[in-house]
Amino acid sequence: MSWLDEVKWDAQGLLPVIAQEAGSNDVLMFAFMNREALERTAAIGQAVYWSRSRQRLWHKGEESGHFQQVHEMRLDCDNDVLLLKVTQLGHTPGIACHTGRHSCFFQRYENGAWHGVEPVLIDPEHIYR
Length: 129
Hints:
Strand content: 25-35%
Shape: globular
Largest sheet: 4 strands, mixed
Number of strands: 8
Order of helices and strands: EEHEEEEEE
Low-confidence stretches: none
Distance between the termini: 41 Å
Structural class: mainly beta
CATH class of the domain at 3-91: Alpha Beta
Radius of gyration: 15 Å
Number of helices: 1
Strand order of the largest sheet: 2-1-6-5
Mean pLDDT: 93
CATH topology of the domain at 3-91: Ubiquitin-like (UB roll)
């Protein structure tokens, strides 16, 4: 049995993935991988996800230059969620979010509304090629 066969893929053949910054432990983003994405991530040492909106593999940073160097891959106790420990490359501090922010989790609930509490580090207009 392959290490990939130990993963509990969902009905669509996907695995939820959390990308966490090595060192700071900031949660940068949430995405999905299919079997091929996980296999390629392990092979090249950079995060490759399955884009549900594009319906194709997505090498994080392919358009923005903000790649994720993978240091560790950890599967949870149920074998159905993956944690990636990454270094966010391409800008200091690292930008993981397509909005130009460090983390995709930049909105905080306060007093009945969501508020953006993290700054835009680079205008997305200047990121994407």
